[in-house]
Design brief:
mainly alpha, about 50% helix
């Protein structure tokens, strides 16, 4: 059959489903019987949508049985997956609300000498440069002749 990549390629080339149907090898890619692509196109262009002003939303406990009936019987989903999703919804409702971003960060008290090197380290670094020779200089990219 024709997958999504091939389908979009054919639509780009032939500009419409009718154009694709008239130009493909129907023995290799037979279109589905009773294919209602006109109805699909109409639903895509003119979706059945309820106006926002006519809807009142309330966040309540999910009605698991009604959800299972709708999703499984009418839409063909697996019952186990729908029930697991309903349990996740219920668990999320019972959890705490999202915290503020500033509560994630903690301000730590600063200590005056925490980021400074000890005076002893400064003395030792000069002797390390002398001992390191050209190997240490090569790492830094500095050569003297």
């Amino acid at each position: 059959g024709i997958g999504p990549k091939k389908a979009i390629e054919l639509i780009k080339k032939h500009k419409s489903i009718e154009g694709v149907l008239s130009n493909i090898d129907k023995s290799k890619y037979p279109p589905p019987e009773n294919w209602m692509f006109d109805e699909a196109r109409r639903l895509f262009k003119e979706p059945e949508v309820t106006k926002a002003g006519e809807i009142e939303l309330k966040w309540e406990k999910p009605d698991e049985e009604a959800l299972v009936k709708f999703m499984c019987e009418e839409k063909g989903f697996q019952e186990e997956r729908v029930r697991n999703g309903a349990k996740k919804l219920l668990k999320a409702r019972q959890g705490s609300t999202q915290g503020r971003l500033d509560s994630f960060f903690k301000v730590l008290p600063s200590t005056p000498n925490a980021n400074k090197r000890k005076s002893e380290d400064g003395k030792g670094s000069a002797s390390k440069k002398a001992k390191g020779g050209s190997a240490a200089a090569a790492k830094k990219g500095v050569f003297r002749r």
